[in-house]
Design brief:
Layout lengths: L2 H29 L5 H28 L4 H27 L4 H31 L4 H30 L5 H29 L1
């Protein structure tokens, strides 16, 4: 497996988080004008801080796009910490929102859409990379990709079901997103292992 192929898994992981950050910010920014003037300044500052975290995350992804796997293992640990800080900021922002329930639902919906999109893009990108392998090895990779797509379909249904259920608690929404994000990570890892074994 080429070094470029090896880092696809880290890139998928990072891109999924960036897509969720973008979706979250778009959702929150769409409602900031509805906040009372006295709270709007603080909301805008919080959003600016969240944008900076997202931009730093994206910059790391760009800088490390061609790095080796050893570098990515280290970077992933650091980026996970940044992701956790971003999530904490989102939670604080929503908790102080005067339209808490509406904000929760809007953020959840956009994050769920971003996750589903990330699953699809990752599977397609990995399918393309899998074509580098000899025909005998491609069948093993294709089987793993089909499992990833099946897992994605299950995650999508779960997120749709929660979204359609109406007003859920923020902790229930975050739990669902965390579970499906974890499923993405496990599917991505399983595909990485299949690629390594195919070498």
């Amino acid at each position: 497996m080429s070094q470029h192929s090896a880092i696809h898994f880290y890139l998928n992981w990072a891109k999924e988080r960036i897509d969720e950050m973008d979706a979250t910010l778009a959702s929150l920014e769409a409602k900031v004008s509805e906040i009372q003037a006295d709270a709007r300044t603080k909301a805008n500052q919080t959003l600016a801080d969240m944008r900076k975290k997202r931009d730093d995350f994206r910059d790391t992804l760009k800088k490390q796009a061609d790095a080796n796997e050893t570098v990515w293992i280290k970077e992933k640990a650091r980026l996970q910490s940044e992701w956790n800080a971003f999530e904490a900021d989102v939670e604080k922002y929503i908790e102080t929102s005067s339209q808490k329930i509406e904000q929760q639902q809007a953020v959840f919906k956009r994050q769920a859409e971003a996750q589903v999109k990330a699953w699809r893009e990752a599977a397609e990108n990995l399918r393309t990379v899998g074509k580098e392998f000899a025909a005998g090895r491609r069948s093993e990779i294709e089987a793993t990709l089909k499992q990833m797509e099946a897992d994605a379909a299950v995650a999508e249904k779960k997120l749709q079901k929660i979204n359609e259920a109406g007003k859920q608690s923020w902790s229930a929404l975050v739990t669902a997103l965390t579970e499906t994000r974890g499923a993405f990570d496990r599917a991505n890892q399983a595909t990485q292992e299949a690629f390594k074994q195919a070498v």
